[in-house]
Specification:
Helices cover 47% and strands 14% of the residues. With 284 residues, the chain is of the alpha/beta class. The protein folds into two domains: 178 residues, Rossmann fold, CATH 3.40.50; 86 residues, N-(1-d-carboxylethyl)-l-norvaline Dehydrogenase, domain 2. Strands 3-2-1-4-5-6-7-8 form an eight-stranded mixed sheet, with helices on both faces. Strand 4, helix 4 and strand 5 form a beta-alpha-beta unit. Helix 1 crosses helix 3, helix 7 packs across helix 10 and helix 10 crosses helix 11. The longest helix has 20 residues. It starts with 5 loop residues before the first strand and ends in a 16-residue tail after the last helix. The structure holds acetoacetyl-coenzyme A (CAA) and nicotinamide-adenine-dinucleotide.
């Protein structure tokens, strides 16, 4: 199994920027790609803020932090990912959009490259079917925020090889993460359990059982969660939560996963959570 030295990350939003940061902090050369130049600008800022925060808390040496910033390149040109040993995508949670990207990545990536998805819920087998190398396609599901959260969920598609699995697991462990493995079913392990809870919190608000503050306080103080479910939904992004619920609903074929209408209405209104400054709560 070859040691991975160069990494491409596609999608420079909250997850992609955090994954790119992890790669650079652990000795890889990293190219972070986004089609939106503003997203790349925001990623540059959030990565240096996060690295400075880790340095100031004593979690990272100044030398490693400075070196990490020197091993990160920002681009909008897919061709620049040509030399990557692994490319991890973290773009929108849409099967069609991700499949189109996998088709392009299969074309530009070197033959030995692993193509990984940070999808929260979508079938890895179906994403792999867009490529000519399904044995080199795998799910690497990081948690938000990637530099802090200790877990990576790994999902093998129907044809993922043992070698691809070992490389992905070794990389996640090199990043200091604990790995859990899920079979390729909608939502995998974490979101299969987490998202119905968040959806239920929206139903609790929608049906007037309690205020948003009391729902969140109930779960924070009542069950020791670091964030209440509505606050967490804002942190994840309401668009992402809705997309995941839709995948669970269709993929698992049970009405208990039907997305709450209130969640859909927030997304329709552009209230996507913290990243837009407004979601269930107003961050303005
Ligand atoms: N970069 C660097 N350091 C960071 C950071 C970042 N992006 N975010 C937080 N930190 C550090 C802080 O510096 C602080 O360090 P110390 O403990 O050394 O002081 C520590 O993390 C805690 O941060 P804060 O004090 O600022 O804030 P907090 O205590 O509220 O913690 C949090 C923030 C870690 C996000 C915490 O609120 C939390 O764990 N929330 C729940 C997160 C969660 O559930 N994530 C999973 C979402 S589901 C998912 O990701 C899957 C999916 O597909 C949707
Ligand atoms: P985000 O909205 O913060 O960022 C997505 C980025 O992808 C945007 O900057 C957008 O410009 C870019 N993008 C969209 N299409 C692109 C394309 N074709 N090529 C290049 N860039 C493109 O989203 P996010 O929260 O970072 O989520 C990204 C992925 O990670 C999703 O699949 C999501 O389900 C998954 N995920 C999210 C979380 C979370 O808490 N938000 C946690 C784990 C996994």
């Amino acid at each position: 199994m070859a040691v991975l030295k160069a990494m491409g990350v596609v999608g420079g939003g909250q997850m992609g920027s955090g994954i790119a940061q992890l790669g650079a902090m652990h000795g890889l050369d990293v190219w972070l790609l986004d089609t939106d130049p503003n997203a790349l600008f925001r990623a540059t800022n959030s990565i240096s803020t996060s690295i400075n925060r880790l340095i100031s808390k004593g979690h990272l040496s100044k030398a490693v932090g400075t070196d990490a910033l020197r091993h990160l390149w920002y681009t909008s040109n897919l061709e620049e990912l040509r030399s990557a040993d692994i490319i991890i995508e973290a773009i929108v949670e849409s099967e069609d959009v991700k499949k189109k990207l996998f088709l392009e990545l299969d074309y530009i990536a070197k033959d030995s490259a692993i193509l990984a998805s940070n999808t929260s819920s979508i079938s890895i087998t179906r994403l792999a079917s867009a490529t000519s190398r399904p044995y080199q396609v795998i799910g690497m599901h990081f948690m938000n925020p990637p530099p802090i959260m200790k877990l990576v969920e790994i999902i093998r598609g129907a044809d993922t090889s043992d070698e691809t699995f070992s490389s992905a697991k070794t990389l996640a462990e090199r990043f200091g993460k604990t790995v859990i493995c899920s079979r390729d079913f909608s939502g995998f392990i974490v979101n299969r359990i987490l998202m119905p809870m968040i959806n239920e919190a929206f139903y609790t608000l929608y049906t007037g059982v309690a205020t948003k503050e009391d729902i969140d306080t109930g779960m924070k103080l009542g069950t020791n969660h670091p964030m209440g479910p509505l606050e967490l939904a804002d942190f994840i992004g309401l668009d992402i939560c809705l997309s995941i619920m839709k995948v669970l609903h269709v993929g698992l074929g049970d009405n208990k996963y039907a997305p709450c209408p209130l969640l859909g209405q927030y997304v329709d209104a552009g209230r996507l959570g913290r990243k837009r400054g407004i979601g269930v709560y107003d961050y303005g």
